[in-house]
Amino acid sequence: MKSFAPALVVLGIAACSSDPGPFVPYVPEPGSPESVAYDNGITRYLGEVPVVHSYPGNARTKIHEFSVDDGPQCLRGSEFRAITRAGSRSELLIFLQGGGACWSDFCFAITTAPPDMPETDLLKLDPANPFETYDLLYVPYCDASLFAGDADIDDDGDGTADRIHHGLANLSAGLTAGYDEFPRPSRIVLVGSSGGGFGTILAVFLVRYVYPDVPIVVVNDAGVGVAHPEDPAFVRDLIAEWGAGDFVPDDCADCIADGNVTRLVRYALDRDPEVRVAALTSEYDFVISNVFLKVPAEAFRASVIAATDEVHAAHPDRYHRFLWPGDAHTATLGALSAFVGVDVAGVEIPQEALEGLGNIRLESIHTVTTRGVLLAPWMRAFVDGRLDEAPDLVADPGPLPPWAQ
Fold it and tell me: What are the structural domains of the chain?
């Protein structure tokens, strides 16, 4: 066990009190699912960052702001905030926003938190939204380190940090605020899109610690965990640069050895019987394959199939895929504005990526299909545990998109 001592360690209070109150860090039972996060020290910010201001937003939302002096902040130093909305049921939807990534060789990222919750397929107040009645915690993505970073990086050597990768602090602040609003959900649906999809792979360990014994259904949209199987050093170096090494458990030495992070998904499923995962992606996802990974479309599809086959074979009843034809990026957002919001100045796009922006297409849960199955009812069935109505679906290889020919 890594050396780690939270400021307040109270065994069982968060889970047992009749009036839970604010989240209180606790010592989990050794070997329990919630001990994974604790043993690796990634719980260090939970319960430690207070909300400095909460106020009503639009459409029944509540905005929670944090001080940059306490740790949470966006990539270039602006304030981080989390957003909640009370529903009419006991289930809780935690949504991790997407928005690129940034490292020493490349930066295509959203660097500010939106002022309020965007209207996306899974967030809007709309009867067509299968989660409209859920309690909701929206966690913006503005750290460019997949909600996992814990590093300040001075790129130009002037003594001032140019990149503030505080994803772990941001995620922890959001989860703490979410717990204060919704301490006792009967079920959690953890959804992440794009960078948030990758974020769910890591965040599930923290969510389990905050909410022990609550069933968790993960919906990973366009961030299933495939990276560079031909170059394992890419993932290893990226995790090191972001200061996110604590997310790789000591007893999972091979979790990133194949150049992907999909084995972290299997690790979570191996240790937590109350977790199920739905992995959503198009077969040739232009943004992931071409913009960020810079790998051929055919190689991307082959890697997705091989890596997710391994997880599905290990947990066929708890890991299902919805892989659809084409190259669209994401299916839970529905519109590009869900990424960028109103602050276009907060989007950093490298010149090399500008040329390909015309190839970016987003799908919707109400339109995307694979093997004749529409995603929205498939997702609803998977979340509800009706797995015969949400089978593992992998599309046959489709034609290469024009940009890949």
Answer: 52-404 (3.40.50)
